[in-house]
Amino acid sequence: GAVVSQHPSRVICKSGTSVKIECRSLDFQATTMFWYRQFPKKSLMLMATSNEGSKATYEQGVEKDKFLINHASLTLSTLTVTSAHPEDSSFYICSAMSSYNEQFFGPGTRLTVL
Amino acid sequence: GQSLEQPSEVTAVEGAIVQINCTYQTSGFYGLSWYQQHDGGAPTFLSYNALDGLEETGRFSSFLSRSDSYGYLLLQELQMKDSASYFCAVNTGFQKLVFGTGTRLLVSP
Q1: Are B49 and B63 in contact (CB under 8 A)?
Q2: Res. A104: pLDDT tops 80
Q3: Phi/psi at A103 (5° precision)
Q4: What would the DSSP string read from start to end of chain A?
Q5: What is the pLDDT of residues B51-109, one digit of tens each?
Q6: Which residues on A lie below 8 Å from B86 (Cβ)?
């Protein structure tokens, strides 16, 4: 089946720093990728839709200047959490959509901001 | 707003059958999916219904009634490895998924 990777799997950073998370589709091309956020024992919340070659579309309430998304190629989307604060600590999950409109999820990145 | 409600927790024993319900209220509806997620892991796709009725995939089946805005996931011959969280998700358009509140399934020996 299709494989989506995320890097890093875990990251710990100091408050005020920026963190970049990569999402790659390893064996297929994805013009659309999605970024989700999940708090412990909670549901996945869609943050934004990432489209290759164009600006990301953010969900209501998600700060686009806080969560920068770049989809520079058909296999890579990046999420940068700028000036991270402890409340940004969460599990960030990406998904990539295949040409058959199936979504495949990455393994997630656990961000801890001290 | 949009909401997908699920029971928070379900318990069952090995070999049993369990049903996880999902009622939804969304701005758009293009299908209902079910995902399994083990702690700390990625959601994995289980089943999908775009039309009313029952879809069967091995030990897992999923049902949809669009007129009732309701669906369920049926897990048969439960195994210990089925202990996980299960989420329903509605495709609200352009493949955007809105996830349910999640159900934690605990399977005991």
Answers
A1: yes
A2: yes
A3: -100, 130
A4: ---EEEE-SEEEE-TT--EEEEEEESSS--SEEEEEEE-TTS-EEEEEEEETTS--EEPTT--TTTEEEEEEETTEEEEEE-S--GGG-EEEEEEEE-TTS-EEE---EEEEE-
A5: 999 999 899 999 999 999 999 999 999 999 999 999 999 999 888 999 999 999 999 99
A6: none
User: Is the CA virtual torsion B52, B32, B49, A102 positive or negative?
Assistant: positive
Nearest Cα of chain B lies from the Cα of A63 at a distance, in angstroms, of 18
In the block, tokens 């919340």 appear at A45
Q: Give A-chain residues touching B96 at CB under 8 angstroms.
A: 34, 46, 49
CB contact under 8 A, B97 and A34: yes
What amino acid occupies position B66?
A: R
Minimum Cα–Cα distance from B97: chain A residue: A46
Beta-carbon separation of A101 and B101 below 8 A: no
Among the listed residues A42, A56, A101, the one whose alpha carbon sits nearest the alpha carbon of residue B43: A42
Total beta-carbon pairs less than 8 A apart between chain A and chain B: 46
Is B95 close to A101, i.e. CB distance below 8 A?
Answer: yes
Asked if the Cβ–Cβ distance from B95 to A103 is below 8 Å, we say yes
Please state, in angstroms and rounded to a whole number, the distance separating the CA atoms of residues A73 and A32. Answer: 10
Per-residue pLDDT of A15-42, as tens digits, reads 999 999 999 999 999 989 999 999 988 9
Question: From the CA of B88, how many Å to the nearest CA of chain A?
Answer: 10
Cα-based torsion angle of the residue sequence A29, A68, B97, A27 in order, rounded to the nearest 10 degrees = 20
